[in-house]
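Lay summary. Proteins are chains of building blocks that fold into shapes, and those shapes determine what they do. In this project we predict the shape from the chain. Here is one chain we studied, written as its sequence of building blocks.
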Amino acid sequence: MSGRRLKVVITDGDYPSIDPEREVLLSIADLFKYDCISEEDVIRCAWDADGIIVDYAPITRRVIENLPRLKVVSRYGIGVDNVDVQAATEKGIVVTNVVYDVSSIAEHTLALLLACWRKLTQADMNVRRGVWSYRSLMPIRLLKSSTVGIVGLGRIGREVAKRLKFFNTRIIAYDPYVEEKVFYELGIEKVELDYLLRESDAILIHTPLTRETHHLINEEKLRLMKPTAILVNTARGPVVDCEALYKALREGWIASAALDVVEGEPLKLGDKLLSLGNLLITPHMAWYSEETIYEIQRKAALNVLKVLMGETTESIVNPEVWKKK
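And here is the predicted shape, written in a compact code that computers can read:
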């Protein structure tokens, strides 16, 4: 590293302050925060940056090719689907993510599941309309007499499964990339996706967004589900085809759904999804807790610091770049 001050740009993010990042990077870099939305925004704000920290801004091939000094892209959070990792790798740019405590996501998933299962939103609306009765909410079954299917048994899926065990419910899961022993250790039955969709009373989505999982839950898959089934997605919006989900909820293919993520965030006021009484939506907040927010910000900055100082980090997404350095 040369003696000059480095420049690090936070392209976007709605954290209350950037004090955690500033504390980490103060010794080597000047830090700038922007609210980038487009490729043009990122190029204009970070054209001379040595490192960038990104939340949802697009770090595409075009962006990468227009940031000649860039050495590291640090993503707030686990997923890097808004970063062209291949383009970064070709340019010798290190891409990192933040592996953090996913307890908040597991807790939020269960909160959404239980809210749908116990029909809490409908019950609340009934009371506010003067209907003090459970009869219009019937039937509601015990969770322990049901089957819950988990799509994606990575860190988050496993944490959710561990918590579900306390409800004594049957848990099945689909994940072609996880070894059999993981299913065995968790006491979960490994099944194919179509079987899971047909068999489950509630389906929880915890798969990352890839080319394979884009619209994994589409009209064809939704039609396999029980008319009494619940769908919960706290993973990535495009894993579920929202057009197909709207149709499924409106026409009664499934009973209800809960989404913490949607395609094309933020969801615009007036979106037709908001007209559905059997859909519960939260604003991509499953990751959030006071403990988690500090951890994510600090770790994202530490990843930049380490790479710019010539040190490795466990959170490198494209380790082949580091091996060549």
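What the prediction tells us: The chain has 13 helices and twelve strands.
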